[in-house]
Amino acid sequence: MDEKDLGADLAKVLIPEDRLRAKVRELAEQIDADYAGRDLLLVGVLKGAVMIMADLARELHTPASMDWMAVSSYGSGTKSSGVVRILKDLDTDILDRHVLIVEDIIDSGLTLSWLVSNLRSRNPASLEICALLRKPEAVRTEIECRYLGFDIPNEFVVGYGLDYAERYRNLPFVGTLAPHVYGGDGS
Ligand SMILES: O=P(O)(O)OC[C@H]1O[C@H](OP(=O)(O)OP(=O)(O)O)[C@H](O)[C@@H]1O
Ligand code: HPA
């Protein structure tokens, strides 16, 4: 599906494909510079981070392992419940590893806040975050994000991994969802 096929469900394209690609490349360059000579473990947070993880990993020159966690903090709607559950844990022991969490979005920040303290308790050598998107107006808890793609307005977004009710993840761009679809204003 491309930008011309925007259905009535989507309000607009917020970040087109070429800007996503350029930003991912830029993030990979920063990560390469910082992790040169280190044994890097990328931890992708399912399912939203699948696209950024796959593209970022391919842009990196630093050899990296990949592992995945699935956590749930959203129900079927657009608001974080703040209650995080592990649906799938890491297969890897991260003790003394250099861990980089790869996320699609920091919205309220509750998911990452919980994840960081969970992973920190496993004593990695280092723990940093790479997030493609952040909504500064929605953040309810400060998150130290070392590698950030874009700050975006406080609107519900879909595409490039991000879903609404499991739809739209395979859009190659990030777009805003029309309020009539979810019956809200994105806040
Ligand atoms: O900053 P927060 O308000 O906590 O929101 C961010 C989290 O919400 C989304 O995950 P979701 O639970 O919807 O699962 P998904 O990745 O499978 O879509 C997103 O992928 C982040 O993990
Ligand atoms: O804006 C969003 N879109 C999709 N999933 C999300 N999870 C948190 N915020 C969002």
From TrEMBL:
<keyword id="KW-0963">Cytoplasm</keyword>
<protein>
    <recommendedName>
        <fullName>Hypoxanthine phosphoribosyltransferase</fullName>
        <ecNumber>2.4.2.8</ecNumber>
    </recommendedName>
</protein>
<feature type="domain" description="Phosphoribosyltransferase">
    <location>
        <begin position="21"/>
        <end position="164"/>
    </location>
</feature>
<dbReference type="InterPro" id="IPR050408">
    <property type="entry name" value="HGPRT"/>
</dbReference>
<keyword id="KW-0547">Nucleotide-binding</keyword>
<keyword id="KW-0660">Purine salvage</keyword>
<keyword id="KW-0328">Glycosyltransferase</keyword>
<dbReference type="InterPro" id="IPR005904">
    <property type="entry name" value="Hxn_phspho_trans"/>
</dbReference>
<keyword id="KW-0808">Transferase</keyword>
<dbReference type="Pfam" id="PF00156">
    <property type="entry name" value="Pribosyltran"/>
</dbReference>
<comment type="pathway">
    <text>Purine metabolism; IMP biosynthesis via salvage pathway; IMP from hypoxanthine: step 1/1.</text>
</comment>
<keyword id="KW-0460">Magnesium</keyword>
<dbReference type="InterPro" id="IPR000836">
    <property type="entry name" value="PRTase_dom"/>
</dbReference>
<dbReference type="GO" id="GO:0016757">
    <property type="term" value="F:glycosyltransferase activity"/>
</dbReference>
<comment type="similarity">
    <text>Belongs to the purine/pyrimidine phosphoribosyltransferase family.</text>
</comment>
<dbReference type="InterPro" id="IPR029057">
    <property type="entry name" value="PRTase-like"/>
</dbReference>
<keyword id="KW-0479">Metal-binding</keyword>
<comment type="pathway">
    <text>Purine metabolism; GMP biosynthesis via salvage pathway; GMP from guanine: step 1/1.</text>
</comment>
